[in-house]
Amino acid sequence: MPNLDLSMLVNSVIYSVLGIVVFWVAFLILDKLTPQELWLEITERKNQPLAIVIAAMCLGVAIIVAAAIHG
């Protein structure tokens, strides 16, 4: 790997961790805004429509975070 620059690797790790943190905070905010407990509804009560809505939200937030990090 002759073209491996350590600073690029460190930046990638930092931005990855930052993206995951922002994504998780967005999920927690959405969890607090909803009247039910999302994780309980999805895992124990098998609420499939809610799981689809949350999956769409996750994809949306992930795209926004990736675009913000990428520039």
List the main descriptive attributes of the protein structure presented here.
single chain; 71 residues; mainly alpha; 0% strand
Number of strands: 0
Mean pLDDT: 84
Derived structural class? mainly alpha
Helix content: over 70%
What is the chain-wise order of helices and strands?
HHH
The number of domains is 1
Biggest sheet, open or closed, and with what strands and sense?
Answer: none
Number of distinct helices: 3
Distance between the termini: 26 Å
Question: C-alpha Rg, in Å?
Answer: 16 Å
Note the overall shape: elongated
Low-pLDDT runs: none
| Strand-residue proportion | under 5%
Question: How are the elements arranged and paired?
Answer:
Elements: H1 6-33, H2 38-43, H3 48-70
Helix pairs in contact: 1-3
Question: Short description, anyone?
Answer:
This protein has 71 residues and is an all-alpha fold. The protein is 80% helix and 0% strand.
Account of the 3D structure:
- With about 70 residues, the protein is mainly α.
- The protein has one domain (about 5-70).
- The chain is about 80% helix and about 0% strand.
- α1 (about 5-35) runs antiparallel to α3 (about 50-70).
- It starts with 5 loop residues before the first helix and ends with a helix.
- The relative contact order is 0.12.
- The model has no long low-confidence stretch (mean pLDDT about 85).
